[in-house]
Design goal:
single chain; 280 residues; mainly alpha; ABC transporter transmembrane region fold; 2 domains; 83% helix; flat
Length: 280
């Protein structure tokens, strides 16, 4: 059923800016957010230090055959790993606690607001999404999605971003020329893959639409099987359904062909870029 244009709460597309309204729920937990942010920075820095530690183990330990320096480096790496483990555990606990607390506060506020609504809101025949069962489902399922978003996904995204920036900075400091090649080669390698990927996604959606059409046509025909047989429409329905099957198959073949090209192009581009950097 199309959305009612008179209802401001019903929109054709979700607005990501609505998530910004949830930030005020995080205000009482600024202290935990600060602890989680510090733990994230410490953990990301520790991961970056491990790479330098491995370099020292190889250069000053194994290659130099200096057992004393090797022991010192391994001990330092053990200390870094201990800090990494503690910071990661602290970050995970804090962001998970915040996510669970946010979901709980949101459920409570939504339920308190629902208790103040008129009974007619839940009994409207034109808005099936306002039924008590549907609202109860959203009260649990949708808030669980938000809990996962704020309790895990955002934290992982920020951690990966910090590690990416730190890695680029270390590369520029240690090997500026090689880093320039990498920074230039990544867009050249990734952009064609992204172009192919978008085309594959469009074909995947088209293929899903074809399969959904098969289900719709079969359901419609079987629901009216008495009418179909009464008018001896079986042959026509067999033909129409067969045509839809072939259309779905043709779309799937095109999608598979494009995905195969994507896989081959991605492998070729990645290994060519790695070979070029090694040659330099």
């Amino acid at each position: 059923m199309p959305a009612n244009s008179d209802d401001p709460t019903m929109t054709s597309r979700p607005d990501p800016r609505v998530l910004l309204r949830l930030l005020k729920l995080l205000a009482p937990y600024r202290g935990r957010l600060l602890i989680a942010a510090l733990a994230l920075l410490v953990a990301s820095g520790s991961v970056l230090l491990l790479g330098q530690g491995l370099r020292l183990v190889i250069d000053q330990g194994f290659l130099a055959r200096d057992s004393t320096q090797l022991n010192r480096t391994l001990a330092a790496m053990l200390a870094v790993v201990s800090v990494l483990a503690a910071a990661s555990a602290l970050r995970y606990y804090q962001v998970s606690w915040i996510g669970e607390r946010l979901a709980g506060d949101l459920r409570r506020q939504v339920f308190d607001h629902l208790l103040e609504l008129e009974p007619a809101y839940f009994e409207s025949a034109t808005h099936r999404d306002r039924g008590a069962a549907e609202i109860a489902s959203r009260l649990t399922a949708d808030t669980s999605v938000l809990q996962t978003l704020f309790g895990s996904s955002i934290s992982l995204a920020l951690r990966n971003l910090v590690m990416l920036l730190g890695t680029v900075a270390l590369m520029l400091v240690t090997q500026p020329w090689l880093s320039a090649l990498v920074l230039i080669g990544i867009p050249v390698t990734v952009l064609p893959i992204l172009w192919f990927g978008r085309r594959v996604r469009r074909l995947s959606r088209h293929s899903q639409d074809r399969v959904a059409e098969l289900g719709r046509y079969a359901s419609e025909t079987l629901d009216g099987i008495r009418t179909v047989q009464a008018f001896t429409h079986e042959a026509i329905d067999r033909r129409d359904y067969g045509e839809r099957v072939e259309q779905a198959f043709a779309t799937a073949v095109v999608r598979t062909r494009q995905r195969a090209w994507l896989t081959g192009a991605a492998m070729l581009a990645v290994f060519a870029a790695v070979g070029l950097m090694l040659w330099q």
